[in-house]
Amino acid sequence: YRADFDASWEIDLFGRGRRQAEAAGAEVGIAEADLAAARLSVAAETARNLFIHRGATARLQALRDVADASAEILRLTELRVQAGEASMIDLERARAQAEEDAARLPALEAEARGALLALDVLLGRAPGETVMAAPSPGPVGAPEVLGAGAPSDLLRSRPDIVRAERRLAVATGLEGVAVADLYPRFSLVGALGLESVEPGDFADAASRLWLAGLSISSPLLDGGRRRAEVDRRRAERDAAQAAYRRTVLEALSETETALITYREARRASSRAAAAAEAQTRRLALVRATEEAGESSMLDRLAIQRGVFLSADAALEAATRVQTAAVSAYKALGSTSGG
Asked: CA-based angle 265:266:272, to the nearest 5?
């Protein structure tokens, strides 16, 4: 009859246990970085599709106004042809312009609808479930994107860099484990219990047993397997280090490109807005001359069509600023765009 308890504790003389713990902790860091990357991607795509939908919806109204103005110009041109005041060339030019303006609408409607369906997927809803309120007229501003800051800030914020760094830590830890396996392993072992031949003697003092000692295990003949394992882990560490360096360089390049694109989009948006304001002032002048009898209704409609086209260009430029801001914040590893 026997009942005992035994335990052993390995003395970590060569860091095998510490390196195993480091590698395990780095594996957790990889999972956390993957989660952060997924959240960043979903947030960025949600914002991008929201801006695209709002921009396309606002542009649809401007392009409908353009199409209406072109249709009115075509109607007036037909009347002028009938009165002998315009040629067939003028009529065909007006008809082509009206068809071209009307042809812009289906593609923009599909873009607005597609962005809304993408939002449904990103929000975990059934396609067509989301209903967006009509956007306010006029371009909507984008949040100001700050500079990339110090490189260390970028290294801490981008999930792909954190993931690459943690993979390097895993490879380094596993290399340390392989190196530690080249040396003997020392363990303290002990046992405590009871042992007897007769059941009645089981609880007697004479039935007690204990054992304590030092256990040593060391590879003698393994055909170079452990040394080859060290070489393999070292090569994996070198590959992870190269991948980390490549990830950092690509992140810096991507961030700089995103910031340049954002700044250029803001500059283009400012010019488009200025052009729209100039067209509006021009329309006011033409209306004044029309009232004075110095210009015709057809002239005013042509200028009005240009006003609507300029408004559409300003809205499109504003949408590019918004999507560029999203790309910049994603490149910076941030979702705090306001």
From this structure: 85
